[in-house]
Amino acid sequence: MQTQVVIVGAGPAGMLLSRLLDRADIDHVVLERRTREYVLGRIRAGILEWSAVDVIRSAGVGARMDREGDAHDRLNISWGGKRLLPIELAELSGRRVMAYGQTELQHDLYEAADAAGTTLLFEAADVALHDVTSDSPSVTFRHNGADERIDCQFIAGCDGYHGVSRATIPDGIRQEFERVYPFGWLGILSKTPPLPHLVYSNHERGFALCSTRNPMLSRYYVQCPLDDTTDDWSDDRFWTELFARIPAEVSDRIQTGPSIEKSIAPLRSFVAEPMRHGSLFLAGDAAHIVPPTGAKGLNLAVSDVHLLSLALITHFRDGNSAGLDRYSDQALARVWNAVRFSWSMTTLLHRFPDTTGFDQRIQERELEYLAGSVAARTSFAEQYVGLRFS
Ligand code: RFL
Ligand code: PHB
Fold first, then answer.
1. Are 310 and 322 in contact (CB under 8 A)?
2. 293 touches ligand 2 (CB under 6 Å)
3. Does the CB atom of residue 385 touch ligand 2 within 6 A?
4. pLDDT surpasses 80 at 390
5. With CB atoms 3.0 to 4.6 Å apart as the test, which of 56, 114, 257, 312 could cross-link to 192 if both were Cys?
6. Which residues participate in catalysis according to the annotation?
């Protein structure tokens, strides 16, 4: 087989890139290790920045998001089990965020790929990238029991944190930066009406978050020890713990119900530099991970593929490779902003194993400062809603 671009990974980064290339008539093939059902079954992100909303619309896959997504102009932060601070995102920053589940977006992207007749191969095993610094890179894999090879001009490594693309960049060239946090998030989905606004909560017992998917589907999280398993958390224990960490005026409005999904995610910050090596370009979780606290992971995946698609389109249309040459630096500037913000929100809102009374007071003072200062809230809102593309 031969194509212009091989995209490794059919998560949101890979599939959105596929849509953007398709609209520019750039020939490409998408290889995914898992089955379609497996990818659609992963419950992950819920919040899109408006820049991401615009990219999704420009890729021609925004119709259902615009119909069913819920634009939020505010979020709340609580602490001490009593304080509840609204952050007026729209008023302070001029922008809102969109609540629309990653699962729904993934579904829309697969449907659009089907309609366009995109070559999208699921259960592609043993994907390996070859000769990425030569003029004739290729990708080999096994599919339906046969060994396959695709010759191409560029490879987009959109294969997430556990993919193969990043490791193709040699050790002497690749630099990695990492912080692993000493706790996880236990998340549940329940078929109950969500609160009208997100609530992020700092509490001596640990962080909690009330989020949403749609008018009859809620998403809630509590910070938990890393060695906990979902078996340790009955639904009753989950609701009791959540309610212990949020003000009564919030819990009074929550309708509880059985969980329909329950999972534990570890938290880490991770960046690999550079995001380009020869004809290989990394995008999304393949190059960086942020803790979910700032709701930035999916948004970074979208902004990476936006930049990469523009660079590839200019290359193929005009023979101008300046965008490809700039890609890594441009993407990393946005990445590090999000890494910094996600780290600071995580540090502000979580209980670390070595947290003392001193640390707790410092966190609460910072939250009181946020409550008392329009400048501080404006800065928070500006970072939460995300940067515009320049
Ligand atoms: P993905 O989604 O991991 O997709 C990568 C795909 O590549 C495939 N793959 C391979 N394919 C072929 N060959 C190989 N060798 C392969 N190795 C892997 C995988 O099977 C997979 O299908 O990465 P992508 O596309 O970069 O997308 C990134 C996002 O999924 C991620 O950043 C977000 O989910 C993070 N995130 C959030 N982001 C937000 O912007 N807002 C949020 O509110 C938000 N909440 C969250 C989150 C992530 C969470 N978890 C579980 C980590 C909440 C949680 C709990
Ligand atoms: C979610 O709804 O899954 C969600 C929302 C906000 C976050 C993280 C996750 O910061």
1. no
2. yes
3. no
4. no
5. 257
6. 72, 200, 292, 296, 384
Structure tokens belonging to residue 230: 């979902």
State the average pLDDT over residues 95-113: 97
Residue 130 pLDDT > 90, yes or no?
yes
- Which residue's structure tokens are 């009955």? 234
Nearest CA to ligand 2 atom 5: 46
Q: Could you tell me if the CB of 46 is within 6 A of ligand 2?
A: yes
Whether residue 266 has pLDDT greater than 80: yes
Q: Which residues touch 49 (CB under 8 Å, ≥6 apart)?
A: 95, 97, 299, 302, 385, 386
Q: Which element (helix H / strand E) includes 97?
A: strand 97-99
Which ligand 1 atom is the nearest neighbour of the CA of 13?
A: 25
Report the alpha-carbon distance of residue 130 to residue 4 in Å, rounded.
15
Residue 4 pLDDT: 98
* Residue 285 DSSP symbol: G
* pLDDT tens column, 36-76: 999 999 988 899 999 999 999 999 999 999 999 999 999 99
Comparing CA positions, the residue from 282, 287, 2 lying closest to residue 139 is 2
Nearest CA to ligand 2 atom 2: 46
Predicted TM-score (pTM) of this structure: 0.97
CA of 46 to the centre of ligand 2 (A): 5
CATH topology of domain 5-47+101-177+268-343: FAD/NAD(P)-binding domain (3.50.50)
**119: three-class secondary structure by DSSP:** strand
Give the number of the ligand closest to the Cα of residue 293. Answer: 2
Would you state the pLDDT for residue 93? 97
What are the structural domain ranges in the chain? Answer: 5-47+101-177+268-343, 75-99+181-267+352-385
C-beta of 291 in contact with ligand 1 (< 6 A):
no
Q: Whose CA is nearest to atom 7 of ligand 2?
A: 295
Ligand sitting nearest the alpha carbon of 187? 1
Is 3.40.30.10 the CATH classification of the domain at 75-99+181-267+352-385?
A: no
What does the pLDDT average to over 6-19?
Answer: 98
User: Taking a C-beta distance cutoff of 8 angstroms, is the pair 190, 220 a contact?
Assistant: yes
